[in-house]
């Protein structure tokens, strides 16, 4: 399936101003109508002038669509928030806070905070139930000299699991020891699945933990042996690292998981027909 295109013209048509954004929030949070806390029934509500609230036509009680979302207590305009989500959704490799600053006129500090808040709602609860799953680890951080790959200093390890032709789950860890990685696999991959890895010894006990296991030996430059390869997860790592190096340049340890969640979120919906922007908006009202 090819994802339907959602252009900047579509965005401007659907969300031309703050009022349109607020109306969408209300309609999405209460699709069957708002139940008034005082009237104890669904009543008609009207927008309160100069406030981000709606009032019950019967008793005047107010409801605030932004409460409980990442927009709560924000002084930034709703149209700017929606524009930021549109920009994030319509890229494969990410977008920098500096670009959002240039396009919207907000300060760099505000742009960075907005992107941080948006990423906080993109974590997926994915269970890999397919019969063929690839598992691999990588290291994410800034540009540093010295050893690369396993054992690299100053970088954060991330374990990735991807179902072939399916979804990905990537989790930041403190290390890539067997005692750390094996519980993550057992938690996220259905037992009985075929797991493909490289020759790293931490995966040697997969057979003992209820999985089928085949490996490829990258140390001797063996990349594919029959069905055994890790090309899918390595393709995902390439996407993440290319985006971080070209757009963000470096990522601190405290934020690695949020950035990985952003890339995973888009990857897991890459084949859907629905425009990515609407998937972002779904998370906005998932409170």
Describe the overall structure:
This protein is of the alpha+beta class and 287 residues long. The protein folds into two domains: 8-123 and 275-284, no CATH class; 132-254, Nucleotidyltransferase, domain 5. It is 35% helix and 16% strand. The strands form three sheets. It has a five-stranded mixed beta sheet, with helices on both faces. The protein has a three-stranded antiparallel beta sheet with strand order 3-4-5, with no helix packed on it. α3 (78-89) crosses α9, α4 crosses α5 and α7 crosses α8 (256-267). The longest helix is centred in the last third of the chain and has 18 residues, at 231-248. The chain is elongated, with a radius of gyration of 22 Å. The mean pLDDT is 91.
In order across it, which strands form the biggest sheet? 8-7-6-9-10
Radius of gyration: 22 Å
User: Strand count, sense and closure of the main sheet?
Assistant: 5 strands, mixed
Total count of domains: 2
Give helix % range.
Answer: 25-40%
Q: Beta-sheet strand percentage?
A: 15-25%
Q: Based on DSSP secondary structure assignment, what is the total number of beta strands?
A: 10
Low-confidence stretches: none
Helix count from the secondary structure assignment: 9
In N-to-C order, the SSE pattern is HHEEEEEHHHEEEHEEHHH
Structural class: alpha+beta
Shape: elongated
If you average the pLDDT, what whole number results?
91
């Amino acid at each position: 399936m090819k994802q339907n295109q959602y252009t900047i013209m579509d965005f401007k048509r659907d969300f031309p101003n703050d009022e349109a954004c607020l109306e969408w929030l209300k309609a999405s949070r209460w699709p069957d109508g708002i139940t008034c806390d005082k009237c104890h029934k669904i009543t008609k509500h009207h927008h309160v002038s100069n406030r981000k609230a709606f009032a019950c036509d019967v008793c005047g009680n107010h409801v605030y669509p932004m409460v409980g979302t990442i927009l709560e207590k924000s002084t930034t305009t709703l149209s700017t928030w929606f524009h930021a989500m549109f920009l994030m959704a319509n890229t494969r490799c990410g977008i920098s806070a500096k670009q959002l600053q240039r396009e919207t006129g907000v300060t760099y500090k505000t742009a960075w905070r907005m992107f941080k808040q948006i990423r906080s709602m993109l974590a997926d609860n994915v269970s890999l139930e397919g019969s063929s799953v690839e598992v691999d680890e990588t290291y994410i951080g800034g540009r540093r000299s010295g050893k690369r790959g396993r054992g690299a200093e100053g970088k954060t390890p991330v374990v990735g699991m991807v179902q072939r032709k399916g979804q990905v789950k990537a989790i930041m860890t403190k290390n890539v020891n067997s005692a750390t990685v094996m519980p993550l696999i057992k938690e996220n991959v259905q037992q009985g699945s075929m797991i493909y890895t490289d020759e790293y010894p931490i995966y040697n006990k997969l057979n003992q933990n209820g999985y089928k296991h085949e490996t490829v030996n990258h140390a001797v430059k063996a990349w594919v042996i029959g069905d055994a390869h890790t090309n899918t997860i390595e393709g995902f790592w390439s996407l993440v690292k290319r985006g971080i190096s070209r757009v963000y340049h470096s990522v601190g340890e405290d934020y690695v998981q949020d950035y990985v969640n952003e890339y995973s979120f888009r990857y897991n919906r890459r084949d859907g027909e629905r425009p990515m922007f609407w998937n972002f908006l779904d998370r906005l009202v998932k409170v």
